Amino acid sequence: MQAIKLITRSLRLLRVVDANEAPEAEDAETALEALNQLMVRWEADGVALGWSELTDVSQEMTVPFESIRAITYNLASELRLEYGIAIDGKMEQVANQSYKVLLRDVLAANPLSLSVSMRGGMWDIYTDTFGPRRY
pTM here? Predict the structure, then answer.
């Protein structure tokens, strides 16, 4: 999917553009910057979707199809501050819920496991290593 399609939908959710209208170039660039920042933050938080920073709105996004809804609604939530738009409760709810579903999917695809050697120990802030409890 091209970034411009997701950006346009996010701007439609905010009613910045009409249903059959394309966003202005400046609005698209603002949204692209916000999209890159959002996705880089998610990647840093462990929501690994394979994001590659985009430099043009016509570029294809390399994210799983099932993540599009969460990205769209959360981008709209981010952009509302740029445009001074109060977001309605339902849209905020969809943004939050779709992000939680995305987190669940990421965790299911990459389950966390606790190493047997780590059980019963604790992190030593002085050596910056994990080891047995010392008390």
Answer: 0.80
Q: What are phi and psi of 122, to 5 degrees?
A: -155, 165
Q: Residue 57 corresponds to which tokens in the numbers above?
A: 């709105």
118 domain residue, yes or no: no
pLDDT tens, residue by residue, 87-126: 788 999 999 999 999 998 888 877 655 454 555 667 777 7
Assign residue 10 the CATH number of its domain: 1.10.3230.20
Residue 53: domain span: 3-109
The answer to whether the Cα torsion of 9, 10, 12, 13 is positive or negative is positive
Express each pLDDT in 36-94 by its tens digit.
Answer: 999 999 999 989 899 999 999 999 999 999 999 999 999 999 999 889 998 788 999 99
- Helices 3-13 & 68-83 angle (0-180, nearest 10): 60
Domain count, the chain: 1
